Amino acid sequence: MVGYLSNYLAPVRVSPFVRGFLIAKFQKIKISTAFASIGIDRLIDGFVFVFISVFTVYLISFPVEQDRIQYSVLFGTLLSLTCFLLLILSINWIKKKLRKDEVPFLFAIRHLTEKWKNRIISFTKVFVESFILDGNKFNIIIIIFIAILMKFIAASHFFWVGLSYDVSLNIWYYLFLMVFLGYLIILVGVIRITGGFTAGIIFVLQNFGISTEKALAMTLTLFMISKVSVIVFGICSAITMGLSIKSMKKIATKNMSM
Predict the structure, then answer these.
(1) pLDDT tens, position by position, 141-160
(2) Which 3-state string (H, E, C) describes the chain?
């Protein structure tokens, strides 16, 4: 929650950097190792997301533009899966090169001073070597189970908000909303579409047969609850960790300038 709260203290998304910094600080590990653990978490989360995307897109029906919506989601899913696989292959390739004392990205840092070159190479070595899963199969199963459980919890938010407006849908529709929301956050974040998040969710809810008024009310209610939750629990977590808002803003600004 502290990481998400930091996004409100900086003009760009810095939560992964802040989380990495805090993990390294409180767990007494190298920051590159902390970033690697966050990367693995995101990667597992991404594969679970891809699986749910394919699973849900064929379990629901839309009154209009059924094929168009399905193809759009499947395209986004295929693109995400391709990026994840390329990331894994790239990390393994860099790892093998560094183990042979070769620097595959030397062309990108050749103009830097030797001090910064060594820092970047050292950081990368620790990062790629730390980018591994726990060898314990039971732990891997627990991690995947928790990732799936978190997706169901995220999808349930629309269920509870919908009940407030006499809206009740099949569970697969809520899972699809969570999937669509995930892709929408990425799209809106990249293209910077003002109001794109709200418009996108309303569009999907309308295709589920929900009126525009109720769709707008559900979206704004969920948006407000989400923001308030992040702020309240983020501040409480920060206080528990001995962090002040001033120090968090300093960390966020520092990571933004990196």
Answers:
(1) 888 888 888 888 888 888 88
(2) CHHHHHHHHCCCCCHHHHHHHHHHHHHCCCHHHHHHHHHHHHHHHHHHHHHHHHHHHCCCCCCCCHHHHHHHHHHHHHHHHHHHHHHHHHHHHHHHHHHCCCCCCHHHHCCCCHHHHHHHHHHHHHHHHHCCCCCCHHHHHHHHHHHHHHHHHHHHHHHHHHHHCCCCCCHHHHHHHHHHHHHHHHHHHHHCCCCHHHHHHHHHHHHCCCCHHHHHHHHHHHHHHHHHHHHHHHHHHHHHCCCCHHHHHHHHHHHHCC
